[in-house]
């Protein structure tokens, strides 16, 4: 029963991997491999977008949990 009413777990997100991929992609593009560098940089940007969406969804879920109330008579959440 505790797990049912427990707050949602916080997401541990880090943008360092996505930032590193973008930097490596730019360095590869400048170094001569333009197409592969742009693909790596685009992959890093996509990775950062996915991390951002996961964090955004986690914060929305936590906000919904914080605004909900538990009925002590029927144990329903409203």
Order of H and E elements: HHH
Percentage of helical residues? 55-70%
- What summary fits the major beta sheet? none
How does the helix and strand content classify structurally?
mainly alpha
Could you report the average pLDDT, rounded to the nearest whole number?
89
Strand content: under 5%
Kindly state the number of beta strands. Answer: 0
The best one-word shape is rod-shaped
Taking the alpha carbons of the first and last residues, their distance comes to 16 Å
C-alpha-based Rg, rounded: 20 Å
Uncertain segments: none
> Helical region count?
3
Could you describe the 3D structure shown?
- With 78 residues, this protein is mainly α.
- 69% of the residues lie in helices and 0% in strands.
- It has helices at 2-5, 16-31, 34-67.
- 5% of the residues are buried.
- The model has no long low-confidence stretch (mean pLDDT 89).
In short:
The protein has helices spanning about 1-5, 15-30, 35-65.
What distinguishing features does this structure have?
78 residues, mainly alpha, 69% helix
């Amino acid at each position: 029963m505790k797990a049912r009413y427990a707050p949602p777990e916080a997401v541990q997100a880090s943008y360092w991997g996505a930032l590193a991929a973008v930097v490596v992609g730019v360095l590869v593009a400048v170094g001569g491999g333009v197409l592969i560098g742009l693909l790596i940089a685009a992959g890093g940007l996509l990775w950062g977008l996915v991390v951002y969406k996961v964090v955004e969804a986690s914060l929305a879920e936590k906000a919904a949990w914080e605004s909900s109330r538990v009925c002590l008579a029927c144990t329903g959440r409203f």
